[in-house]
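Hi support team,

I submitted a single chain yesterday and got back a structure, but I'm not sure I'm reading the token output correctly. Could someone confirm the output below corresponds to the sequence I sent? I've pasted both exactly as they appear in my results page.

Thanks,
R.
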Amino acid sequence: VALILMSCHCEAFSGFGTVHSLRRSPRRTCRQGLQQQLRSGLANWGELAEQVPKPLIRETPGNEISGASEVLSTGRLTLFRDRNGWCPYSERVWLAMLEKRLDFDEVLINLQGGKPAWYSSVVPTSQTPAIVTAEGKEVHDSARVLEFLEENYPERPLMPSDDASRAEAKKLIAQFGSMMPSGARPSSRAAFLIRGSGMPLARQDVEASLSKIDSVLGEKGGPFFMGGDVTMVDCVYAPFLERWRFQLPCMYSGLEAKSEAYPNLLKWYDAMEERVPAYASRVQGDSHTWELALDGAGGGPTTEEGSEEWLHIAKGEGQADWKEI
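Hi R., thanks for writing in. Yes, this is the structure output for that exact sequence:
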């Protein structure tokens, strides 16, 4: 069992399954799955192996996709997302598709070591996320994909049914950029926390965004943005709030997004984990994942003086000095 647990901790473990990819704490997930299987009375390791889902088509050594025709020949709804699960825009679409209970395949695109040559012939922008329908229609850009999914797969809607609430949900989605701190780059690893210069945002700017989001969550009584049910609005904000939950304490001493200081946001975090199984068990990253991602998010300033200032802000010292950076 120990050997299997070690092997499941590698990157190849994310991406198993016909519909889903596991990213959250693979070692713990694997251990729990093994314990459940062993308790069920399986007779031998061969039977246990049969319970392990087969890998998806993906761009990895030994399982190279030779071209676009191989991808499109399945005749199934297919999501193209980043291999490591770091892209928040891919996560938006991934979560929405899972929450809508769609039957789809995934192709994981390597954004770190160079995208495969065939990808641009499937997705002209070569960006992730993108989808290709069973009929061969390609849609890219997370906002466009989410809108397309809602219009063309209405069986399990993620937008309110009445016109007024639907318009309000669209407004919250459109206001996402203004809810986030200005002047920050939307980095996939540390979204809206670091400026283009490589320096971190002023603490008060992050706190202002947290307060705005907390206030909006309270307007409908929560725990979700539109009230008692998860909607597309939650899918849009979730990847970024997820990163903030784990990364803010690493950058700003004592600053916690999931805390009593932001009571409505605290309820939202709890509700996402307790009432949205697709998020809690499949999509959500953990502290280890996002702390490591932050470590390589931008390298910080290149000068010795700048590096010293970075250390000060990470320790929570001299926060006011960062307002003008």
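A quick pointer for reading it: Strands lie at 78-82, 105-109, 130-132, 138-140. Let us know if anything else looks off.

Best,
Support desk
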